[in-house]
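Hi U.,

Before I forget, here's the chain from the pilot set. I'm dumping it here mostly so it's searchable later in email.
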Amino acid sequence: MKWVPWLGLAIFLVSLGLRLIGITWGLPNDLHRESYHPDEPIVWAVSQRLEPASLKFTPGFYNYGTLYMTLARIASGYCALPTDDSQDAVAMYERCCILAGRILSALAGAGTAWVVFALLRRRTHILGAVLGSLAVGFAPAFVVHSRFQTVDVVATFLLALSLYFALKLLPDQEETPPDHYLRWAALAGLFAGLTAGTKYTGAVVILGVYAAIALARRPDWLRLAGVATLAAFLGFVVSTPGALTDSGRFMAGLNYEVAHTAAGHGLVFVGTPSGFLYQLVSLWAGFTLLAFLGGFGALLYAGLRKKPWALVLLAFTIPYYFLIGRAEVKFLRYTFPLYVPLAVGLGWALGQAHRRGGTGRFIVIGGILAVGIQLKTATQYTLWMAQEDPRDEAGRFFKEESKKRPGLTVGVTDDPWFYTPALYPNVAMTRAAWNAPAGKFNLGTLQMLQANDPKVVYFRADQKPDYVTYSTLKSYDLDRLQNAKDLGGDQVLIDQWKEVNARLQRDYKPFGVFGGQPPPRLYREDLEYVHPYVFVWKRKDLP
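Structure:
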């Protein structure tokens, strides 16, 4: 069937088109000069230290590998440099650069769906290949993060390629033996190294490559494993050369990431279940429940039946899940590499059910329903990202109110950041910029105190602003931990929040919520980025 290869391209284009809708969400605009994604300004700043034309590939920042930073720097080459040093001009340049990096992520997200399609074509019926690839193309969290200038989606794409070439070492569904063993081992290892050079935890995929080599039962298995290992090492060094040429700072960055994942991330994961359980719920939230159960069940069943392809995927999946399950930092995006084996398992099961016919048709209907639920959920997030962010809505409201009532004051419950409505242009500035010295203040405090229309103040005992505002990105964990015990030093934050609520109840009345009323949901902060709910309280004595 000559038309079959075109299906992969069609799936890629559909997945890409979905990702391009809303891709400008949260970028610097007339209300704020930083992205609403807290990591994007950091990624942008680091990428600007690289000079590919001068062969400078050592940014001095190694919390992540360097490959994505390098690609983002190259992609931003078409952005015109600012004509002056004004903050607005720099913000518009940053906007262009971040958008270029986001397009890379969108291409990688859609490319992952294409790779899964190509992988499944060799393992099952074409219907299963289509549905399995769409399960990645439409996975809601993967769609959302494909619009961010961050490392996760590109790392998942490279990981999928590593598994694709690893499985080329095994016979296909027609039991046709592979050829070019050395080539496939080298490519699988190379992409494993590039994955690690984008995000270090992706190095675990090399275990899947080794499993494929072992299951190929070749007399030259040791040579194949050596070639894969060497290719992985070269891929990592080429993508993150600072590992050798800037080893001191590289080890500092790597050690920081290891310590950070073991220590936690502020209040975000305090009082949450073990990562092993927490990330299962993350898979439910990000991949949707029916697709997750179908993919996991199929992968487990195929593994128990000793299907070689499933054993290869499990050789990666189990250690990787153990790795993220042990961590105290449990962002949903850490589960993205698991979407590949889940989608392959789901697609294989649906393809085999279609071939079997009879009652297998009900399984196929269930699979179509699962992918449909994914698309519906992804569409909701897409609509949110294509519309004005609630933080901007609130910011425009306060600016209009300031015109009616000069001197209007708005209280914030903490140092402003990405979670704060757009009360003034530098509201979302990074923590490093915020803490920069500026006379008797730090830069962040100075910028806040200089804000006008509206004036911005801290909501403290000596201040009684006209309005008080905050978003769920700030309040969710504080509310969640109100009755928690044994919080240690974090108890101070909870007590402060209780005092804030007491003052609000006494002196203020609920005015409204931008973004709609928060529904009951599976809260994950890195999905909440795109649509927090912004609460506004108004002083009771105001008309």
